[in-house]
Specification:
By secondary structure, this protein is an alpha+beta fold. The strands form 3 sheets. Strands 3-4-2-1-14-13 form a 6-stranded mixed β-sheet. Strands 5-6-7-8-12-9 form a 6-stranded mixed β-sheet.
């Protein structure tokens, strides 16, 4: 089973690139972030035509997550939970579309797949950073509940956290960013301490793997990137981890997202 996460940065704006990636790499499960589409406007038929079944949790203009499974390969999808029950940083804003949880089944075997788009937290300090940390605590609590169910589980998405210094092209350049603050890193580290495995780090212990390159200042051309798209695995899936990778080439295509797809292959 190949599971992948991809911050698409606007499903309508990147639809040709997204469909290319799905057709060329054919992940069994694909978690999308920043779909930037209301539920009623999400182009589900485009993915169904490719042989994918899907669920999505949209929001006008920003945020939004989706989970796709390859029905041609025999996978089925059942929604478990949407949202973590935490309001956005603005008073009266309500909950943002950042969390979607589903059971994915094939041949009688089921895995819990969670797609997340963790808050960015900038500028910091301030209410957006406070919201980021509160959201991470909510996520940790939900991950503990999933752990207690003893189901094979993967938490995929844009975590908006640069875990270590070797996950960024320049520590100095990002030192004041919310993605690299000690509090953000500590919250991520607590997830690992709870027993979850960082799939990409496991196969790249020396770091140096980027999943995001900003559109500004020639970041892609200069390879000024960092790693914020992560796949965390429960012990049941960590034991089945066979390979990981980042589809860097897709970041360099015309009108591409500023993220590259990140994936892991798990043995049946």
């Amino acid at each position: 089973m190949k599971i992948a996460t991809y911050n698409i940065n606007g499903v309508k704006a990147r639809l040709p690139r997204l469909k290319e990636w799905l057709e060329e790499t054919r992940p069994s499960v694909a978690c999308l972030q920043e779909i930037k589409s209301q539920d009623k406007d999400f182009p589900a038929h485009e993915f169904e035509a490719l042989g994918y079944s899907l669920i999505w949790h949209g929001q006008k203009s920003f945020n939004g997550v989706a989970v796709l499974v390859d029905t041609k390969a025999g996978y089925s999808l059942n929604e478990v939970k949407r949202g973590l029950g935490i309001d956005g940083p603005k008073e009266g804003e309500g909950e943002q579309s950042r969390y979607l949880e589903a059971d994915v089944t094939k041949d009688g075997q089921t895995a819990r797949i969670v797609c997340i788009y963790l808050p960015n937290g900038n500028p910091q300090p301030g209410p957006k950073f406070d919201y980021k940390l509160a959201w991470m605590e909510k996520l940790r609590a939900r991950m503990a509940e999933i752990w207690a169910e003893e189901v094979p589980a993967a938490i995929l998405g844009d975590y908006n956290v640069i875990p270590q210094d070797d996950d960024v092209y320049s520590v100095k350049a990002m030192a004041s960013d919310a993605l690299m603050q000690p509090e953000s890193r500590a919250a991520y580290s607590r997830l690992l301490a709870d027993g979850w495995t960082d799939a990409v780090r496991t196969h790249n212990p020396n770091g140096g793997v980027w999943t995001y390159w900003d559109y500004q200042a020639g970041a892609w051309q200069r390879d000024h990137g960092f790693r914020i798209d992560h796949i965390l695995l429960s012990p049941e899936l960590a034991d089945r981890l066979n390979a990981v990778g980042v589809d860097r080439e897709h970041r360099g295509r015309e009108k591409a997202s500023d993220h590259a797809p990140t994936w892991a292959i798990l043995r049946d």
